Please model this.
Amino acid sequence: MSKRSRCILRMIEFHFKSDLILNYITNYSDWITRILESEDYTLGQLDYIFCTDDYLLELNRQYLNHDTLTDIITFDYSDGSTISGDVFISTERVSENANNYGVDFDNELLRVMSHGVLHLMGYGDKTDSEVKLMREKEEEKIKMFHVEP
Model:
């Protein structure tokens, strides 16, 4: 078997179905990779899709039978410790949440982006104790964005 046939594709892709423009995308992909490594996971295929409220509401209705707005929906395709999935993020919800929580948009975007990958690693947010741990992990991971590898 040649080296080429043994190569495993590992990547993070960003898709935009809203007005959001991410500058310096490499900074985001490097950060997400560091998040995975900090929890002893490896990267498979990870897609972030930034979209509108209407787009995400339709996914919520179609796949989860929920008729409510949300900031994030994560579809998990992970295999063991190799993380793969689709992370849909409503940039309108992120903006509104940032205003409600008194934080800037960029900080809230990092929180939601880390939230999605933490879900893929098995962290939940259904119970009070899960929510507490999730918030601690989000804060820890947000701080990693500003640290060079």
